[in-house]
Write a structure and sequence with these properties.
Layout (H helix, E strand, L loop, with lengths): L2 H21 L9 E3 L8 H10 L6 E3 L3 H5 L1 H4 L24 H5 L8 H12 L5
Parallel strand pairs: 1-2
């Protein structure tokens, strides 16, 4: 048997012995809490704060939207959590595009800022004084 085949065989044997040890880790070791901080008329800050103050053991997961993580820190003077230090992004569940331009003007060539403002004034009785 040449040296390369012997090393490959040794690596395969070592990995087959180590695999059961890696699989024996118990996750989750207790019930996982999924927090969705969107209630009827509620604020996302309370649920998000509960996740920020939970122990960092991976057992508490926050389902949040991008605006609550990106806009709130800039529109509120004080938040009970730091969006950059208290949370780790795990996965993106969905992508939603909210662009009024797509709802009002389906063709890009008919879109202009002035026409959008005009539609908003009519639809929402906006007055830009």
């Amino acid at each position: 048997m040449d040296t390369r085949k012997m090393w490959v065989a040794l690596v395969v044997i070592a990995l087959s012995i180590a695999a059961p040890l890696a699989m024996s880790q118990a996750y989750p070791s207790k019930p996982v809490r999924l927090i969705v901080p969107y209630g009827a008329g509620g604020d996302t800050i309370i649920g998000t704060e509960a996740v920020a103050k939970a122990s960092p053991d991976g057992q508490t997961i926050l389902f949040s939207s991008a605006p609550s993580m990106t806009i709130l820190p800039h529109t509120r003077k004080r938040l009970p959590y730091d969006t950059f230090k208290d949370f780790i992004h795990v996965a993106q569940i969905a992508y939603l595009e909210f662009a009024p331009r797509n709802w009002v003007f389906p063709e890009p060539e008919t879109f202009s800022t002035d026409s959008l403002v005009g539609v908003m004034r009519i639809a929402y009785d906006w007055r830009m004084d």
